[in-house]
Amino acid sequence: MKKRLLFLGPPGAGKGTQADILCKTNGLLHLSTGDLLRAEVSAGSALGQQAELIMNKGELVSDSIVLSIVEKKLDGQDQGWLLDGFPRNLQQAESLQPLLEKIGQSIELVLLIELDNQILIERLLSRGRSDDNEGVIRHRLEVYREKTAPLIEHYSHQGLLKIIQGDATIDVVANRIEAALN
Ligand code: B4P
Predict the structure, then answer these.
(1) What residue segments make up the domains of the chain, in order of their start?
(2) Which of 14, 48, 53, 182 could be 40's S-S partner, Cβ–Cβ 3.0 to 4.6 Å?
(3) Ligand 1: centre distance to CA 84 (Å)
(4) pLDDT at 84
(5) What per-residue confidence (pLDDT) applies to 103?
(6) pLDDT of residue 72
(7) What is the pLDDT of residue 75?
(8) Does domain 4-180 have CATH number 3.40.50.300?
(9) In 10 A of CB 137, how many CB atoms?
(10) By alpha-carbon position, which residue is closest to atom 22 of ligand 1?
């Protein structure tokens, strides 16, 4: 089974939901840059205060902040991991490469969770997080198309990408993901 994984997909596709299930079932480290940033916001740290303003506008937090968080978490991890919501643009993907080389590990599989915009918007509006109002959601979708979607080609080119259709119940999507790991 593949154990060094990355989730790609638009906001609201279910990356966080599926990452929780997959990591619990398989004993992987779940590394969500969104969750880690929200933890900094709740703690009221200087970093969190900086990140909160950016997240509430639907923009991406600066690469240097996100990278320093990821580097700390990945160091010394050998039981397998799932990167959820990171990398978010080509620069982050390029910075991840030397970081992984330094710890002697590599990505084994990239799973892209796909879903139509209309369903994404409905799901996020019903989730109701502070960055989940319609204007901000539409902006996050644009940021995804412009900055994150180029990663699909990047990882497909490396022969690492598999596509998972996210338009089903949580259990069905989880089964699709589990089947893709072998
Ligand atoms: P994230 O925390 O990564 O969250 P997300 O993309 O909005 O949602 P996700 O796809 O995880 O959906 P979820 O499972 O919750 O990003 C938030 C912000 O953090 C970004 O906008 C950015 O500012 C910042 N950030 C994060 N990483 C960054 C990085 N690397 N660089 C820079 N900035 C970064 O699912 C959504 C909803 O759908 C939930 O309510 C869930 O219950 C529901 N749902 C899930 N699956 C379902 C299903 N199958 N059926 C019905 N409902 C479902």
Answers:
(1) 4-180
(2) 48
(3) 9
(4) 97
(5) 86
(6) 85
(7) 80
(8) yes
(9) 21
(10) 60
